[in-house]
Structures are given as structure tokens and as C-alpha cells.
Design a protein that fits this description.
single chain, 612 residues, alpha+beta, 9-stranded mixed sheet, 5-stranded antiparallel sheet, 7 helices, 14% helix, globular
Amino acid sequence: MKYLKYTASIAALALGLTACSQPATEPAATPDTEAAAAIEYAPAPSRVGLSAGFRDAGTAIWNMELLHEVPTPPGFADPDALWAPAVEIALFQAMEAGEEIARPPSPISFANSDIAFSGNRMVLGNWHGFNVFEAEGDAEPELVLSVVCPGGQGDVSIVGNLVFRSVEDNRARLDCSGVAIEEDVSAERFRGVQIFDISDISAPRQVAAIQTCRGSHTHTLVPHPSDPNVLYIYNSATSSVRSSEELDICSDGEPGENPDTARYSIDIIRVALDAPEQAAIIERPRIFADAETGEIAGLAVGAALEGQDRESSTTDQCHDITVFPEAGLAAGACSGNGILIDIEDPEHPARISEISDPNMVYWHAAIFNNDASKVVFTDEWGGGIAAHCLSSDPERWGANIVADITEDGLEPRGFFKIPGEQGEVENCVAHNGGLVPVPGRDIMLQGWYSGGISMIDFTDSDNPVEIAFFDRGPISSDELYLAGNWAAYWYNGRIYAPEIVRGIDILRLVPSAYLSANEIAAAESIHHAESNPQTQQRYVWPQEAVVIQAYLDQLVRGGRVAPELAAQIRTAIDTGEASSVLSSNLAAATMAASGRDTERFEAISAWLQRAG
């Protein structure tokens, strides 16, 4: 199949020092005392009972170092008016019961959401607008721009000087003002994708506002295969369908009653980067249709789950779509299913495979590994407003599921969830993240709201394991407030994690028994000009000794190389000279190895041949 051809082509690049593999067969990470000299194995500290606070909450950290806590800019958060879901639910129930209550503005209107990067800039989304920061090296980022434009969720992406932003709230306006819209139908309402030009950082301009039927919960940037001036946006919408009186392309209902329903599809928007004001929807593909019958509602139908007090979700929307353009693939986390999509023709995406699982109630996000041989899907059980990482919670509820990409499509494998050490006042959910570019391994970062940041090794698809984390206590010890790390991403050597109410956490990795200094240095050697959520780029490592040392550390950690041979290899790397005996020993070791170990030995041999 086409997507397996991509995996094979990546494997062929092993000698060029790319991260390449067939599905992993090696065990989960184990303590490494030889490759990480002077580093002793230390068990993870407990996350239980971290003290509460806004700026002074207790923390637990393992194999990471916190560099900066960048506060949310003024006007975009109020520590005295945070969102308590229980209070909101009680208010809603009272209003439903007929009580006359003056509803206050929802504090969620000031929550931080996702983050995007371009050069030394990072753009932080917020329900209330977005903020742009600049930083050089490890200096603390400085705020250079705030744009107020209420209308959540506010997820952002950036290309050059264009910022793209998702908007779905009924209160949002075309003019970005905060004036409430009282009418059910209004020409002033905006729900869709905004485009801002920030080329003049002192005078940002909204240059486009693409209206959609269900707004925009998240969006994904997809480059044109051959034209760098053309960009596509895959729009994922999860809100209600607006009236045709407000937007004439819209209508609601189930496909059996209305075959033109705005449900059961995504939006594809075409953007010419030199004329973004002309951006428009060009397709609304039915990617959930039954492959044989063409029935529009062809995937999961929500229902009560046997033996559970939960219901699965109907697949009439995608929450997130992650694209991997160099692989020609996308992975959709689409409420009731995880789906694999062929995007070689980005204007006409075609579903390849789909999976469901009774443990997963709302498929939320997706992350490919570097050779597109597997994908991790996350489950947003409870929507992020409940305490779902308790010791009493099932380990597979609200977890990640790893799926291998095989000739037959997606094949479910192992699950991962952070330890059940969170408390009743800590909203915890498997949320957004991305890959860490450690050569030879599949490692990802992820935000878990009040569960903090987790780094997960999923090289062994059946046994993903946590190898580092950062966690912070709740806002209050008495009440659950919406807070915590929305996401965690690697960008040019550092970890950036937007925090819903507190701002941005910036961290770095430190060597441990699970990750050597060489592996970290190899990851830090990767630099991209831009990085956006849900648009993956393939990592290619430079032909440097530290990358080869990282491969050797992995062989030592797994006990796959004899100590004598490991010592010979290290000496040869240091001197740049390989004896005929070493070459012979490496050839024998390569012949005896399998899977990724074969590729590691091949990369070491090739590098030593070039160095000599």
C-alpha cells in the first residue's frame, strides 16, 4: 500500500542518519548505567498531594528542568475569576429550571489554548485573541504583540507573517469587538478561520475571515505538494450548525433526512499566500462515508458502552486532523473513530482505514512517529473539565492508544496513561503534543491539563512508557478550576507548554538513565524555521558524531552490543579511525541484529567509513 512505501523509503535512508524503522520489537526503556556515565537510576517522584496555588503551586519534575514560567499577558487572564466547571453546571441547571439569573461572562473566555512557532517568535492562542512573544536562545520571551478578538477556542498557526486562528463561539464578531450579539441570526457574527497579517508588528491587520457552518474548533495547515505559494487549511468543527439564513451554504440534520447536512464532513480552505484575502472553502469532503455503500454516516454511531457508565461518540466531525505531508498521510481523531487518510492530493483526501475501541469515548488528537509506521491517538474523556486521572479510574479510560500502520491499515496496539496520582480538584485529560526528535526512538511530549506534561517512549507499540514529566498542583485545594498544560511541543531544542490560565512553561531535558546526553544533543541539533500544531515535519539528523553516539547509547541501554565492541566503537568515533577488526566485528553484529538495531549498526558503520 502507498503508506507502507513511505516507511520503506525512510528505512532506506538509515545510512544517511535519518530516524528509520520497521515497527519496533525492542522492550520499553530500561535504566542505562553504561551509556549515561555517572547518572544513577532514580524512580519518578510522586505527583500525589502537590500544594495548590496560582503562582506558588507545588511542583514535581523528573528528567526535565523548568527554565521559564511566562505569565499570561494582562487582559487575557484574571486569577480572581477562574472557571469552575461545577459552578457553571449549577448555573446552567438553575437557568434550565426557569430561575431568572443574570448570567455573568464565562471566565473560559480568557483561557489560553494552542501555540505555534516561527523563527524566534511564538504565538499563543487564547479565547480572547492571541499574543506574540519573541526570544533569543534561552532568554525569557518578551511580549511584542497582543490582539484582542473574542470568540474561542482561538487555536493558532503561523506561516511567515500570517497568523491563522480558529473561532467557533456565537459571540464572535467580524469586527473583533466584544459587543454581544443578541440576535439568533446576524450578519456581524463570525464563526470560522481568521487570517491576520503581522508583518508590521505594531499594526496587525485581519486580512481574511472565512465563514464556516460549524465554526472552527481546530485547524490544520497543509502545504501544496508543488506550489509554495498555496496552502490548504483542513478545518475541524465541533459546534452546532448555523442557520442557512446566516450562511446560505449551511443546513443541519442527519443524512437520511438531509443529504446536504453540514455534519459528517470537514472544510478545505485554499489560501494563496500572496493574496490571503481571497481564501475560500473549495471542498467539504465526506471522509466518514461508507466505502462500499457511499452512506454519508458510515462510521461509529454513539451508544452506551456495555458495562460502563459512559457513551461512545458519533463520528460526524473530527476534533483534530494531524497531517504528515512528506508521507502523504493524515490521521484524524474524529470523535468516535481514529482514521487514516491519504492526502497526496490535498484537495481530495481519501480515508484509508479506521479503528474504534470501547475504551475510547472521544478521539481527540493524533501524532505520527517519524517514519509514519505508527500513530498515537488520544482520548479526551470528560472534555478536560473533570478529574479523570484518579487512582480509581481504569488505566485505559482517557488514555492514548498506539496504532501501527500495516498493509491492512490501522492496527491497535498498546495504551498509555499517566499514573493515577491526580486529585479530585485536578482536571486531567489526554491532550495535545508532538514528537521529540531523538534518533532511533519514538518519543512524544503531551499536555494533560492539570496532569502536567509527560514525555512518552512509544518505540515498543505494545508498551509505551513515561520517561520524563513536569507536574504542578491545582489552583485550589477545595474547588476544581480549569487549568493546566494544554499541550507540550518540542521546538528547536526546548519544550514549550501553554498553560490554560498561567501562561507558558518552557523546559529543557536533562540526561537520565532513560535518555542520554548524546540523545538529547542529537535532538537539539534539529532546527526548523516554523512549527505548527497538527502539521508534522520529518526529522533528518545532521551527520555528526553525537548522532552516532546516540545510536550507540541505545544499543548499550538495550544490552544489544558487547561491552568490548561498544568501547571499540567509542574510541573509533573519538579518533575518526576504524580498524579492519572493528569493521569485521561491526559487520558480524549487524548480521546478528534485527529491526532498529540493524539500522543503528548500519548507521554507525556508514559514519565510520565516511569519517575514515
